[in-house]
Write a structure and sequence with these properties.
By secondary structure, this protein is an alpha/beta fold. It is built from ten helices and eight strands. The chain folds into two domains: 148 residues, Rossmann fold (3-Layer(aba) Sandwich); 116 residues, Nitrogenase molybdenum iron protein domain (Rossmann fold).
């Protein structure tokens, strides 16, 4: 009888000890977070598309593990989330999204995943353009492609650094050091872009692209934009719109047409054939290229796009 009592006490006592240690571990972890003690495990971050992911990677460094929902050369306009995306978001401590209506599929994904981490809207604080300002559309919707202005890229990086420092205060200094170094590179590239474009006469700074993703680029750097379709790459232009664009190309002596990496090339190729205007180089608007390619980073994308534009702006 005594042996049974002792055995039960040992079992219950051992369970209580394990429970105490587990609870204490949770309390200690919360205390470490509050006191800014560095975490021993990487912060789990999900970025909605490849351009944001590159910024997050620059700031987060080795202190994060990163999952990208819409990958390189992917089209965020036509994207459909998968159960794998929901699982990744369910385990994430931080979500980084563009905002401004860019990720129309994201609210459903967040709800399905039960995500309860920190939601960082990278575009918070930018001066948003509306379609109709420096564009051919007048529907009043916000243009979400704010990253196409490098000064907005600086705002994105600061918001990302704020988010990481909040989730992982123990490594806040490292996040801000990397962010400041990255911001200096973005600002240097911004100055270089402006210097190069200043040498091109304004009348020659005209670009036609497959969809309206360069509004911030044109607004920031003094380039007039013409797009075949609207803000979404899913849109299909009417025959009247195509005829009007062809007339405009001939009247304004546009030298080249630019295709975007995530767009369907058939329509642009048709217009090029009918007008005799050559196709310029590939531009990157909503997604990065493969990591080993020149446009495989946010800064590399800017440099690549500028090379293609400068090669065609002069007659």
């Amino acid at each position: 009888m005594i042996e049974k009592v002792l055995l039960q006490f040992w079992r219950h006592g051992r369970f209580a000890l394990v429970l105490f240690v587990a609870c204490a571990g949770s309390v200690w972890a919360q205390a470490d977070h509050a006191l800014g003690v560095p975490s021993t495990s990487p912060v789990r971050v999900v970025a909605t598309f490849s351009i944001l992911a590159d910024m997050v990677r620059e700031v987060g460094g080795e202190q994060i593990t990163l999952t990208t929902i819409v990958g390189r050369n992917g089209d965020a306009h036509t994207f459909e989330p998968t159960p794998r995306d929901a699982r990744a978001l369910a385990h994430a401590q931080m979500l980084v999204r563009n905002g401004l209506g860019f990720e129309g599929w994201l609210p459903r994904l967040v709800q399905a995943s039960g995500f309860d981490g920190l939601d960082v809207v990278a575009a918070t604080g930018v001066q948003a353009l509306r379609l109709g300002e420096d564009t051919a559309h007048h529907d009043g919707n916000l243009d979400p492609h704010a990253w196409q202005d490098l000064s907005n890229g600086v705002v994105y990086v600061r918001n990302i650094a704020h988010g990481l420092a909040e989730v992982d205060p123990g490594h806040a200094q490292q996040y801000w050091q990397r962010a400041q170094a990255y911001i200096a590179r973005l600002q240097a590239e911004d100055r270089a872009v402006r210097d190069r474009l200043a040498k091109i006469p304004a009348a020659q700074r005209v670009m036609m692209t497959s969809h309206e993703a360069f509004g911030y680029f044109g607004h920031a750097y003094g380039i007039r934009l013409i797009s075949i379709v609207g803000i979404s790459s899913e849109a299909e232009p009417t025959a009247r719109t195509i005829a009007s664009l062809i007339d405009q190309i001939r009247t304004e002596h546009i030298h080249a047409l630019f295709l975007e990496n995530a767009a369907n090339p058939k329509l642009m190729q048709r217009i090029a054939q009918e007008t005799g205007v050559r196709m310029g180089g590939m531009l990157y608007a909503d997604a990065l290229d493969a990591p080993e390619r020149e446009a495989g980073t946010y800064l590399g994308m800017f440099r690549w796009n500028m090379q293609q534009l400068l090669a065609t702006f002069s007659p």
